[in-house]
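## retry 2 of 3
previous attempt timed out at serialization; input unchanged, resubmitting
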Amino acid sequence: MNNKEFIAELSRRTGYTAKETSSLMTVLVAEITEQLEDENAITIQNMGTFEVKKKQERVVVNPATQQRMLVPPKLIINFRPTASFKEKMQ
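## retry succeeded, writing output
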């Protein structure tokens, strides 16, 4: 399902126009992005939790050259689904 199909389905289910639904989705995604940039966790009921975790720096080895390289620390987004969401996906 692409974005256009997703917006159409949401607008059909909610009764809003496609333009209103698209605006709501834009605001929702912007707010989620802003919260994750501030390193706040976001919990969506019956779905799961999005959180930002720090991945520590580490040494990796290039298999072709055997050269060791230091990979700097970085922030990653982690998703932990609820038990009911996991069950629905099986």
